[in-house]
Amino acid sequence: MANYNHGHYLNGALEAILAQSLQPDRIIVVDDASTDNSLEVLGNLARRYKHIRIVQNQANTRCFAYCQTIAQYLERTELEYVYLSAADERVLPGFFEKSIGLLEKFPKAGMCVSWLAFIDEIGHRLAKDRLTNYHSHDLHVELRQPIFLSPAEVLKRLKRQPWFIGGMAPALLRRSALADAGGHPLPEMKLLADWYVVHFIALKYGMCYLPQTLVEFRLVADSMGRQVALHPEKVMQDFLSALRLLEDPKNRQVFPPPFIEANRRNFSYTAFRGSFIEWHFKFHEDLRRLAPPKTLVDKCLKRIMHGFMRVEQLLLKFYCFRNVPAAFYEKASPLMGSLPKNLAMSAQYQSRNNGR
């Protein structure tokens, strides 16, 4: 579990894990030099539960130390399953038992993904109309029974919905598959680190799909993901790092060219989507708060404005699909030294693991 200044969420996140019907063998919390009461909270919990281990960073590394800890853990442990979480996320009853049960039933699967619900900063569930910038598994309503999806089936669904898998929060990973993906060694990718790992696993090993809400994902205003998503240039840097890794020769059998090409277009659109929708959402929130509709005509006008936003969003998508940034077509050099330092570390780790 990663934590930075989320001491007020730690108790809830860890107690939710400790209340699971199937308990983890150990819990490792990496605190990234928090300045709040996080260490006090963690110390109290560690004294009560001996399988909690705290890794304390002396300086804020913004994910790097967390990724290093995961890489070291994968080399030392023989435990079969790994769950990577954050202090602002919360598992619901049955998450481990149901996920592992499905993975035991389908031993080829590299991970099990369940549904997640979005909550606000105080833990209240958010309605769908407040989640215009977030993707939902509800698009796959026909999947109402737990199922194994082969790599080919995963690829087929990704063509329909590029963000079908989601991120790391609802995914329980098989340790061997996570190690094959390089662990979680991609701190420079920020938003796309989770994305790369779960897509590598799903497209190489297949995945179990558990259509139950078993994780709550908290939307926090000051989260790193949210801050990066609102700045297209920063998002594009993450996407460029991801594309380089997708095109790496060692991944040729995992990520087919049509998948890479589709993601060039999707990344182009997503780079602008966050800031576009955030602006519109704030506009409509301010309008509702400061000048709420009083008559039926007012309500109709507001609906029309919202409809125009949807049209604008479709036009933005069409525009971005036609105008993929030239940088997204730059070929990655086969030389490891040409990659960013942390990506080179990732490739070296993956090469060692594949050579075992």
Explain what you see.
The chain has 12 helices and 9 strands. The strands form 2 sheets. Strands 4, 5, 6, 7, 8 and 9 form a 6-stranded mixed sheet that branches. Strands 1-2-3 form a 3-stranded parallel sheet, with helices on both faces. The model is unreliable at 332-356 (pLDDT under 50). It has a single domain (2-261, 328-354), classed as Spore Coat Polysaccharide Biosynthesis Protein SpsA, Chain A, CATH 3.90.550.10. Strand 1 (2-3), helix 1 and strand 2 form a beta-alpha-beta unit. By secondary structure, the chain is α/β, with parallel strands linked by helices. The protein is globular, with a radius of gyration of 21 Å.
**What is the CATH C-level name?**
Alpha Beta
Beta-strand segment tally? 9
Q: How much helix, percentage-wise, in residues?
A: 40-55%
Radius of gyration: 21 Å
The CATH H-level superfamily is Spore Coat Polysaccharide Biosynthesis Protein SpsA, Chain A
Q: What does the average pLDDT come to?
A: 82
Overall number of domains: 1
Structural class, by secondary structure, is: alpha/beta
Summarize the structure.
The protein is α/β, with parallel strands linked by helices and 356 residues long.
